[in-house]
Write a structure and sequence with these properties.
This protein has 280 residues and is an alpha/beta fold. The protein folds into 2 domains: 104 residues, Beta Barrel (Elongation Factor Tu (Ef-tu), domain 3); 118 residues, 3-Layer(aba) Sandwich (Rossmann fold). The chain is built from 6 helices and 16 strands. The strands form 3 sheets. A 7-stranded antiparallel sheet has the order 4-3-7-1-2-6-5. Strands 11-10-9-8-12-13-16 form a 7-stranded mixed sheet, sandwiched between helices. The longest helix has 16 residues. The chain is globular, with a radius of gyration of 18 Å. 43% of the residues are buried. The N terminus is likely disordered. The protein binds flavin-adenine dinucleotide and FE2/S2 (inorganic) cluster (FES). The site of FE2/S2 (inorganic) cluster has 12 residues, from loops.
Length: 280
């Protein structure tokens, strides 16, 4: 989608919280009713969220769209979030009927125009948040009669309770491989090693990777994608202030290939980038 088309969809809206449940000690799933029209958002796009009527925190916080669907005259959006600081702690204290000020949908989502028969989704921890929406999108494509590629999801976490949303991904994907650092569930070790082991049975000429998780994990996936010559899209994270490309606070260094140093704005040029574009 071109920048102009996406910007025309962008709006400040009021979202009404329907539910806000803990999935683990520090990860919550929030369901929000948003006005009709919002469901044109694409997987990988995000929203900037503030609690309506609160002065603090001053800056809105960015969250990926975890799922989005039409329900009657309105739409329902889910946000899956981890409590890491004041803003997310405040969100976790909210309940049904509380209101959010939401700016979105923002940024460039995953490019799904690749014609590949196998789609691998590689998630580290809370990185599953945007990949769940992408898996839903591919399933909808199938509903609309287009051929659905084989979806294989790799989910990694420190321990088994960090494998958030595994059951949902099992419903959406053809296969789900899990890994834990302590080996109590699934592959023992890092999700990237789990992927390498399983990739031996995959036709890399017909594969695309979509990845979200900690920086080091995405860097490893990007390097592997380069080695296998497989297209790879990564959803980058950065601290954000404006969310619309104005403050340059979210810049990441891009590969310059001998040209002057270039930076990309995670909020506007991303958050999803072709992994080859990032100067890791
Ligand atoms: C495009 C985008 C999509 C995101 N989607 C999700 C999502 O779906 N679910 C989710 O749980 N989180 C997501 N995040 C991260 C989320 O925005 C931050 O965790 C949140 O803003 C923290 O706010 P806070 O006030 O609780 O923490 P703060 O008090 O602001 O910070 C607490 C700690 O978290 C670190 N931190 C804060 N923001 C970020 C960030 N953006 N990247 C890396 N570290 C950060 C800080 O360095 C600090 O150590 C996303 C970030 C971006 C840029
Ligand atoms: S957050 Fe302001 S430019 Fe990206």
């Amino acid at each position: 989608m071109c920048d102009k088309a996406m910007e025309s969809n962008r709006a400040v809206i009021v979202g009404i919280i329907r539910s806000n449940h803990p999935m683990t000690r520090d990860v919550f799933l929030m369901t929000v009713t948003v006005p009709h029209g919002f469901e044109s958002a694409m997987p990988g796009q995000f929203v900037m969220v503030r609690v309506r009527g609160r002065e603090f925190p001053f800056l809105p916080r960015p969250f990926s769209i975890h799922s989005l669907y039409r329900e009657g005259e309105a739409s329902t959006m889910e946000i899956l979030y981890q409590v890491v600081g004041d803003g997310t702690r405040l969100l976790s204290s909210l309940g049904s009927g509380d209101e959010l000020t939401i700016l979105g949908p923002l940024g460039k989502g995953f490019d799904t125009r690749y014609d590949r028969r196998t789609v691998a989704l590689i998630a580290g921890g809370i990185g599953i948040a945007p990949l769940h929406f992408l898996a839903q999108y591919y399933n909808k494509k199938n509903v609309h009669g287009e051929e659905k590629p084989r979806l294989v999801c790799f989910m990694g976490a420190r321990t088994a309770d960090g494998l958030i949303g595994r059951e949902r991904m099992e419903q959406l994907c053809d296969a789900v491989m899990v890994s834990t650092d302590d080996g109590r569930e699934g592959y023992c070790g890092m999700v990237t090693d789990c992927f390498v082991d399983n990739s031996k049975t995959m036709d890399t000429a017909d594969l695309i990777l979509y990845c979200c998780g900690p920086y080091e994990m995405m860097k490893r996936v990007a390097l592997m994608a380069g080695d296998y010559s497989v297209p790879c899209q990564v959803s980058m994270e950065a601290r954000m202030a404006c969310g619309i490309g104005a403050c340059l606070g979210c810049s990441v260094k891009m590969k310059s290939d001998g040209r002057p140093v270039r930076y990309g704005r995670v909020c506007k040029d991303g958050p999803v980038f072709d992994s080859k574009m990032i100067d890791w």
